[in-house]
Specification:
single chain, 398 residues, alpha/beta, eight-stranded mixed β-sheet, globular, binds pyridoxal-5'-phosphate, Aminotransferase, pyridoxal phosphate
């Protein structure tokens, strides 16, 4: 076998292992290729079709011109670490020491990788919500841990508290949450966050929270779990500039938390990428210091986009679930007569000139059936693109 056992394991964890042992393309790669080949509107992968703020883009250009082009410090440039600490204080009143409690990473993805690989041993259990961001499954499998999940229940995609209590045991090393949540757009309520902290204490588990959509909520406030009593000392908080500043290709992410935990993450991170994106680091620092109007503006803009796409999907005959945050909305294709979202997504470019992703791509096989007819659509696109997609999708109901 060409592929190592560890990576076979990871591919299996991500649901990518084909019956013949080869590794399949992710559904995201398959759907993006389909969008490319057919010219369909790509509402599959979550990347914006417009540039982020000029201040941020110009800061990167200036940094390149000034010669910020060599390896930055291993923990990240001082200016960015200070900007991350100031951001946590300004928005959440969390005090973070930029010297010891902040680590800059190659996107949130590397932060997740280094955290899971650095903190988990063979046979430990890692609990996530389900559906889950695909990298979680692969990384947990690569760390040779057991992946336990808590299903998110329709119609609001929130976890049942009894399910949470059952999933977290003394074998649980990490409770990984994603709040606000991709792919469902759910925002975890305060009492659920408090229960997670209580369970982490009871079973001596650590909390890892992926908050890349922290600024993209549509009315509900974002409550970082690390800001709640009893959480800080056992929580690692992960975020990234990609979603907030529409710079998903820059891959500047970070993790904040107690120094001891950050050191464990750094131990792995230093051998994954060592460092990345020197000129983009000061640019993201510039972004984090933008005035409140910027952060309010992106949320308002995206709220409108959510509404345009959601109402278009409703008019087309889907049952649309409310999205409270993120780039995404989930819609049920069953009322249109499609019980299998994988089949529908493969046909959608032909039927309606649109690409989307089945929710089952974010699930283990056992639970995929419950979400079989659900589709994730991205609305981080220009309004005219969303309107066109909605008009084309209206063909489905005819
Ligand atoms: C986009 C996304 C990431 C990846 O962030 P990068 O900074 O691009 O690595 C991680 N988690 C979730 C939930 C995401 O949607």
């Amino acid at each position: 076998m060409l592929i190592s056992g560890a990576w076979q394991n990871a591919a299996a964890g991500a649901g990518l292992l084909a019956p013949d042992g080869t590794i399949r393309a992710t559904i995201f790669a398959e759907m993006s290729a389909l969008a490319e080949a057919t010219g369909a509107i790509n509402l599959g992968q979550g990347f914006p079709d417009e540039d982020g703020p000029d201040e941020v883009l110009d800061a990167a250009r200036r940094a390149i011109k000034k010669g910020v082009n060599q390896y930055p410090p291993g923990r990240g440039s001082v200016g960015l670490r200070e900007a991350i600490a100031a951001h946590q204080k300004r928005f959440y009143d969390i005090e973070v020491d930029p010297e010891r409690e902040v680590l800059v990473t190659a996107g949130a993805t590397e932060a997740l990788a280094a955290t899971i690989l650095g903190l988990v041993d063979d046979g430990d259990e890692v609990v996530t919500l389900e559906p889950f961001y695909d990298a979680y499954g692969a990384l947990i499998a690569l760390s040779r841990a057991e992946h336990r999940t808590v299903p998110l229940r329709l119609p609001d995609f929130l976890p049942d508290h009894d399910d949470l209590r059952k999933a977290v045991t003394d074998r649980t090393r990490l409770i990984v949450i994603n709040n606000p949540h991709n792919p469902t757009g759910a925002v975890l309520p305060l009492d659920t966050l408090e229960l997670i902290i209580e369970l982490a204490h009871e079973h001596d588990a650590l909390i890892v929270t992926d908050e890349v959509y922290e600024h993209l909520t549509f009315g509900l406030p974002h409550i970082p779990i690390a800001s709640l009593p009893g959480a800080w000392e056992r929580t690692l908080t992960i975020s990234s500039g990609g979603k907030t500043f529409s710079t998903t290709g820059w891959k500047i992410g970070w993790v904040t938390g107690p120094a001891k935990l950050i050191t464990a993450v750094l131990a792995v991170k230093q051998f994954l990428t060592y460092v990345n994106g020197a000129p983009f680091q000061p640019a993201i620092a510039t972004g984090l210091a933008l005035p409140d109007e910027y952060f309010e503006g992106i949320a308002t803009d995206l709220t409108n986009k959510r509404d345009v796409l959601s109402s278009g999907l409703t008019r087309a005959g889907f049952e649309v679930f409310p999205s409270e945050a993120s780039y995404f909305v989930v819609a049920d294709a069953a009322p249109l007569g499609y019980d299998n979202a994988v089949t529908l997504c493969r046909e959608l470019p032909e039927l309606a000139g649109v690409v989307a992703v089945p929710i089952s791509a974010f699930c283990h096989e056992e639970l995929a059936g419950e979400y079989a007819s659900l589709v994730r659509f991205a609305f981080c696109k220009r309004v005219e693109v969303l309107e066109l997609a909605a008009a084309q999708l209206a063909r489905l109901g005819r």
